[in-house]
# Entry
Amino acid sequence: MLSIKNLHVSLEEEEKQILKGVDLEVEAGKVHAIMGPNGSGKSTLSYVLSGRDGYAVTDGSASLEGEDLLEMEPEERAAAGLFLAFQYPVEIPGVGNMTFLRTALNAQRKARGEDEMSAADFLKLVREKAKALKIDAEMLKRPVNVGFSGGEKKRNEILQMALLEPKMCVLDETDSGLDVDAMKLVAEGVNALRDAGRAFLVITHYQRLLDHIRPDVVHIMADGRIIKTGGPELALEVEENGYAGILGEVA
Amino acid sequence: MALAEKTGADPLEARLGPVADAGAWAKAARGEAAKRLRAMGLPGRRDEYWRFTNPADLNAAEAPEAAVFETGEAPTFDAIDRLKIVFVDGVFDAATSDDLALEGVEIERLSAAASRDIHWARELYGVLEARGQTPVARPFAALNSATATDGVLIRVTAAAPKPVALIYLHRDTRSDAVLHHVVRVEAGASLTLLESGPAAARINKVLEVDIADGGAFHHIRAQGRDHERRAMTSIFARLGEGSVYKSFTLTANGVLTRNEQVIELTGDNGVAHVAGAALGDGKSFHHDDTVFITHDAVGCESRQVFKKVLRNGATGVFQGKILVKKGAQKTDGYQISQSLLLDEDSQFLAKPELEIYADDVACSHGSTSGAIDEDALFYLRSRGVPEADAQDLLTLAFVAEAIQEIEDEAIAADILARLEGWLARRR
Ligand SMILES: Nc1ncnc2c1ncn2[C@@H]1O[C@H](COP(=O)(O)OP(=O)(O)OP(=O)(O)O)[C@@H](O)[C@H]1O
Ligand SMILES: [Mg+2]
# Structure
């Protein structure tokens, strides 16, 4: 599904190398988790995959189902099936959440040559998905993420994912800021989407989320590289001993 | 300002011409206005309130030529049930206007009223304009009172059953229109006034509005899209106790637009809201909102919300003042002017002013200039919204705060559709 090879990324503005050769293969139907110390480059990887400005790919490649992601505009990547749940969801004053969701959904449908969804069908769909995530009607009416609590913003990300039904979902610390119940809702949202044709890359610092979303593979990222890959037990090891052991072992 | 004496042809006298013959009241009002204008002279770049806007095209004896712009889209407010009063190049057009009959509303053409010896409008015509000449001179408004021969006089005695719409059509590329309207809203009465259209190659328009106690006046206008037209508009509003004045203006295109509003809150607990959205594309676009609100009573609220979207070297100006007089306690004054600059060549010049002589007031003002929020743009694109659509969505979001000032939902939707159309044509 997602294939990243030897990806080197530096900042456009300054001479700073952040990703120093990332290799990662995420197969369809699988859930991969990435853990790693603060500043190791996890968010940078997610931004580069989704096409944010400000980064220069100096070497390597990234593709989604064989299509070169790095050649596409951010909106093309989204239409191709890539979705990033932001670590820090953006507030957009003046744009209603409903308008935002409908515009996004219809833009992707249009890009795929499908018909726009009727207002009535859309309303029904949003209500159903929002209900599962305990997002009330009032939150749907408000401007995108404006005045949302940290946890509400994260649930709103998952709502978008549930509506857009992407193939490749990258979740950047979607668990941070969530209370125990919200964490469960988010995990249920993710699990409901798990399917043979879809893959997840879950960036997290905590085992807790991984208790609910059982990963198939766990990667440890440090200083711009994947330094260790293993099964779910790797996350438990991090939870118990921190990164010191793993970093020492690799060095 | 008195540069005229030195040169042979006097530009001011050229603009004034002979005072048109009329009935006693109108003749006197015009004569007084001409006197006012001669005392203040035409404006120049050195005048404090003309530093950001060049008055040359407004001062010129002849209107600069302006092509007529055919839009092909439905006229603004077309779907709204309204009483239509049409002016073509600044001249009332009976053939395309509705009957000037509306329950609770008396409408009369200025030219007809002016020929009478006595008329209710004599208490207001040029009177509110004259009040608004201090402390800041407004020469084009005085010129207008002195020379206008067309316009409407509207007296509202009840809640008007539907809006009155003034529709200004532009046909002649050299037309130079001068229109003067007077509205008197009697105690407890209410009216919505709509204005739309490019009007003429050049227009100088004055609207005097007097709102008696408990009256309400809503004003929504969409200034015409002709690219080359020039417009100088002035509104003078006086509010009685517990009365409401709400005005919204949409401006798209035009070489030069200067919209002045001078509002006086003279009765306790009055409410005055003025808002505007301006869209400009290109170096030749120059748009100026100049607002002066005087609080001269207790417990009044005033609100100014102005948004300008500027691209390809367009210029926006905002000069807004709140004056709180001695004794105008419990004043609530708010002012915000913001521009969205879509490139580095566009500019926004703002001069917000507060002058307060009462101690128990809450006044705030702010002015900002900014580009599209890159984080928001990326967020939208990451959800599959194409860049141009995302940019439009954010532009509309920026203007939304001003549009929200329009209370009537159907009218607000119409204004929004104009905005969307304007953006869509610029893809
Ligand atoms: N635009 C930028 N300007 C300057 N430094 C940046 C920028 N983007 C990323 N960095 C730097 O790159 C490094 C990696 O950042 P990144 O956000 O990818 O880390 P992370 O692994 O997601 O960390 P966290 O766990 O704290 O979220 C950090 O040192 C960060 O300061
Ligand atoms: Mg991060």
In short: Chain A has a mean pLDDT of 92. Residues 110 and 116 of chain A are 7 Å apart (CA to CA).
